[in-house]
Structures are given as C-alpha cells and as structure tokens.
Amino acid sequence: MLLLAAPQDGQSRTIRQFQFTDWPEQGVPKTGEGFIDFIGQVHKTKEQFGQDGPITVHCSAGVGRTGVFITLSIVLERMRYEGVVDLFQTVKTLRTQRPAMVQTEDQYQLCYRAALEYLGSFDHYAT
Fold first, then answer.
1. What is the spatial distance between Cα 80 and Cα 88, in angstroms, rounded to a whole number?
2. CATH number of the domain that 92 lies in?
3. What residues make up the domain containing 101?
4. Most buried in the list 38, 56, 109, 125, measured by CB within 10 Å?
5. Residue 116 CB: number of other CB atoms within 10 A?
6. What's the EC number here (predicted)?
C-alpha cells in the first residue's frame, strides 16, 4: 500500500498493488482458477475500500497477461450481472482500443477455460 499526495492541493490517494505470481514464464497457467480468484480479490478490495478510481493493469508488453486480466474481468462481470458470455466480442472490442490484446492463442484458450471453470463452480450449489 502506498499513499500519494499532490503537493499543489494536498489531495491524497491510496494505491494498492497486486501481483499475480503463479503465471509461468512461458505459456499460461494450466487452469484459470487462481487467476479468477486474483481478479476477484482485486475487485473486492476496490469495493471494500470504496475507491472510485480505475484499476490499472500492466505486464511487460501491456497486451498479453494484461489482456487476459481485462477480458476476464469484463466477461466474469457480464456473466454475473447479465448472464452473457461473449469472449470473442469482448476481445474484438478490446483490440479496437489496443491492438494485440490477448496476445496468443494459449491466452485466448485460457480465457475460455477460466470462464468455463467459473461457470462450473456454480454446479456445487445446484439443487
């Protein structure tokens, strides 16, 4: 946690940094479960502290892991509130704003696996 203050007006903002450490150097995680939990933790912390600022996401190139995080954040939220799953359109829209988002086929497939794992997690509560 870091507290930044603007010298001009004394306004301050608390910055919380999260780091996902289970992503391998090459390829993608075998499952999306840990990454889904990480995304949930980031959003839950933002809500818990009532922060209205943006979530800033970064990785080395700014499109691979970052793209997966943003894609899954959007898709999981839409699943929860709208009952909609449209990974293709989500990635397509993101790529109009930043080319190469979700950089590799493996990352794209991880998004699908993670979404399916997320949906499958609700089977435990059925009937």
1. 18
2. 3.90.190.10
3. 22-121
4. 38
5. 12
6. 3.1.3.48
Q: Is residue 1 part of a domain?
A: no
What are the backbone dihedrals phi and psi of residue 4, each rounded to the nearest 5 degrees, phi first? -110, 140
CB 115 within 8 A of CB 121: no
Tell me the pLDDT tens digit for each residue of 20-45: 999 998 999 999 999 999 999 999 98
Q: 80 with 115: CB under 8 angstroms?
A: no
* 77 occurs within a structural domain: yes
Residue 120 has pLDDT above 60, yes or no: yes
Residues 66 and 52: their CA atoms lie apart, in Å, by 20
Contact predicate 65/73, CB 8 Å:
no
Q: How do residues 97-112 score in pLDDT, each as one tens digit?
A: 999 999 999 999 999 9
